[in-house]
Design brief:
Blueprint: H1 16-37, H2 46-76, H3 83-117, H4 130-161
Helix pairs in contact: 1-2, 1-4, 2-3, 3-4
C-alpha cells in the first residue's frame, strides 16, 4: 500500500505561513490593546476592558504558545503532527476564537451605541475624541479575529487528517 503525502495547508503549525499568521495575530492584538489603553475613559466600559483582556490572552496564546512552537519546528525541521498536541491546539484556538469574536462584537455594539444613540462622539473635538481610538482598536481586534479564525479552521482540518 502506498502512502499519500499531502501538502500542508496554508497556515498550519510548523510551516512559515503558520508562523506569519501567529505573529500577525499577536501584532494586531497588541496594536488593539495599545489604541484602547491610549483612549481616555475606556475603563468606564466593561466591554472595552474585556476587549483588552481578550486581546492580552490572544497575545499570550499566539506568541508565547504557538509562534514559539512554529519557530522551534521550523528551526529544527521537526514535524508537529501529533494527535494529542493538535487536540490541545484546536481546543485552545477555538476557545480564543469564540472569545475574541464575542468581545469584538460587543465592543462594536458599544461604539454604535456611543455614536448613534447617545451622541457621545459628537461631544468631543476631533483631536481629543476617544471614539476614533475606540473604533481603530475594535477594527484591529476584528482583524485579529479573522486571523484567528483562519488558523483555527486550518488546525481543525489538520486534526481530522492526523
Amino acid at each position: 500500500m502506498r502512502e499519500s503525502r499531502r501538502s500542508p495547508l496554508i497556515g498550519n503549525t510548523g510551516i512559515v505561513s503558520g508562523l506569519v499568521l501567529r505573529i500577525g495575530q499577536c501584532a494586531f492584538a497588541a496594536a488593539s490593546v495599545g489604541f484602547m489603553v491610549s483612549s481616555p475613559g475606556f475603563y468606564s466600559n466593561t466591554a472595552f476592558c474585556y476587549l483588552i483582556a481578550s486581546m492580552g490572552l490572544q497575545m499570550l496564546w499566539s506568541f508565547f504558545g504557538l509562534a514559539y512552537m512554529d519557530d522551534y519546528a521550523l528551526s529544527r525541521k521537526r514535524d508537529l503532527q501529533n494527535p494529542v498536541l493538535f487536540s490541545v491546539l484546536v481546543v485552545g484556538d477555538w476557545v480564543t476564537d469564540m472569545l475574541s469574536l464575542t468581545i469584538v462584537c460587543s465592543s462594536a455594539g458599544v461604539i454604535v451605541f456611543y455614536e448613534k444613540d447617545i451622541k457621545f462622539c459628537k461631544q468631543h473635538d476631533y483631536v481629543d475624541n476617544p471614539c476614533i481610538r475606540f473604533v481603530i482598536s475594535v477594527a484591529l481586534a476584528f482583524i485579529t479575529w479573522v486571523l484567528i479564525a483562519i488558523t483555527s479552521h486550518v488546525m481543525f482540518w489538520t486534526l481530522a487528517s492526523v
